[in-house]
Amino acid sequence: MAWADLSDYNLMNAAQKLEFERLSGVYNYTPISGPTVGLDENGIPIAEPQRELYLERLRLVKEGYDTYWMNEPLRTAYTQSHNVYIEGVTRHSAMEPAWPTTRLRVS
Fold it and tell me: How many domains does the chain have?
């Protein structure tokens, strides 16, 4: 069994991730027509669905919820490998070569 080297990863915690999302516009709302609705003067999303989502995630962060991100890209996986090799001779007449003419390799 091999282990991945994750020592070079520098990942955000939940509070940093939420702040990054807020500043990058994840919680902005773009209506079908009209300008994009962003953040109010306190940096909170203005549009109601995005505001509710942001505030819920902020509440969870303040309660101490976090994710150990090193677990996310890794998992235990079971793999299988199959090889099939088929070789045969087709019927041939006296004018055809007598060596195998049909080969199939599947890996």
Answer: 1
Q: What is the pTM of this model?
A: 0.55
Cα 77 from Cα 2, distance rounded (Å): 12
**Residue given tokens 């994710």 in the structure block:** 67
| Nearest-10 crossing angle of helices 14-23, 48-62 | 160
In a domain, 104, yes or no: no
Domain presence at residue 83: no
Rg of the chain over all Cα atoms, to the nearest angstrom: 29
Q: Which residues contact 15 (CB under 8 A, 6 or more apart)?
A: 61
Domain that holds residue 40: 14-71
pLDDT per position as a tens digit, 81-98: 888 888 776 665 556 655
Residue 3, in any domain of the structure: no
Rounded CA-CA distance 19/59 in Å is 13
Separation of CA 73 from chain center: 8
Q: CB-based contacts of 31: which residues, under 8 Å, 6+ apart?
A: 37
